[in-house]
């Protein structure tokens, strides 16, 4: 059974989200492309709808956030830490359907183990994907089978680490000729940055409102 800390997190999460399929207030949606600032004139001309799952795993000794590291040969975001997810297909009924389908395809986590609780604000990546983050509670036990063509590693970060503002850093780097500032959240040997880190910060802001 989950301990008291996990149950308190569950109550906080349930209260923080409006429910499956409900977009958060517009102020939670930005066009920051994972950067802290982004000029509107560099918005990609072609935008593709996509969705990711933000899986919160309800372990008995505390919640964690499940993440993946993508394989190094992919055309976009190769080798980066990401949430499971991908492009919306014509047969998907909703962003939730996309996120759950892609999660099962990428890491073998079946939708029957996932309780969708709501969404974070949509973000657009510099590579032209408008991403809807779908938040779901995951109940162990479950089996994971990473797709070797897409996922190199699956790992988990304690939710308490994500919710601690002291772990939210920023860095600046010259990317394609432009200086960019972005969030980073290093965890052990994993370098979490860009859109994934920005979504983790959004998760923190949602669960720990100012």
In the CATH hierarchy, the architecture is: Alpha-Beta Complex
Assign a percent range to the helix content: 10-25%
Strand count: 10
* CATH topology descriptor: Nucleoside Triphosphate Pyrophosphohydrolase
Task: Present the secondary structure layout.
Elements: H1 4-16, E1 48-59, E2 62-70, E3 81-82, E4 85-87, H2 95-107, E5 114-119, E6 123-124, E7 129-138, E8 151-158, H3 159-163, E9 169-175, E10 178-184, H4 194-207
Parallel strand pairs: 1-7
Antiparallel strand pairs: 1-2, 1-4, 2-3, 2-8, 5-7, 6-7, 9-10
Outline the structure in words:
By secondary structure, the chain is of the alpha+beta class. It has one domain: Alpha-Beta Complex (Nucleoside Triphosphate Pyrophosphohydrolase), CATH 3.90.79.10. It is built from four helices and ten strands. A hairpin with a 4-residue loop joins strand 6 and strand 7 (129-138).
Task: Please give a quick description of this structure.
By secondary structure, the chain is an alpha+beta fold. It has helices at 4-16, 95-107, 159-163, 194-207; strands at residues 48-59, 62-70, 81-82, 85-87, 114-119, 123-124, 129-138, 151-158, 169-175, 178-184.
């Amino acid at each position: 059974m989950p301990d008291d800390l996990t149950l308190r997190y569950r109550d906080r999460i349930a209260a923080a989200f409006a429910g499956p399929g409900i977009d958060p207030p517009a102020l939670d949606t930005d066009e920051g492309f994972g950067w802290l600032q982004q000029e509107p004139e560099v918005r990609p001309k072609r935008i593709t709808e996509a969705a990711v799952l933000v899986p919160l795993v309800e372990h008995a000794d505390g919640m964690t956030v499940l993440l993946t590291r993508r394989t190094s040969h992919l055309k976009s975001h190769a080798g980066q830490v990401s949430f499971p997810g991908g492009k919306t297909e014509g047969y998907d009924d909703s962003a939730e359907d996309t996120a759950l389908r892609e999660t099962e395809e990428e890491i073998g986590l079946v939708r029957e183990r996932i309780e969708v609780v709501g969404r974070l604000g949509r973000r657009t990546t510099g590579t032209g994907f408008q991403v809807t983050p779908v938040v779901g509670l995951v109940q162990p036990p479950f089996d994971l089978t990473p797709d070797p063509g897409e996922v190199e590693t699956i790992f988990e970060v304690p939710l308490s680490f994500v919710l601690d503002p002291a772990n939210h850093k920023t860095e600046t780097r010259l990317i394609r000729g432009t200086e960019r500032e972005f969030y980073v959240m290093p965890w052990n040997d994993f370098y979490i940055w860009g859109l994934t880190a920005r979504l983790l910060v959004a998760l923190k802001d949602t669960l720990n409102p100012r």
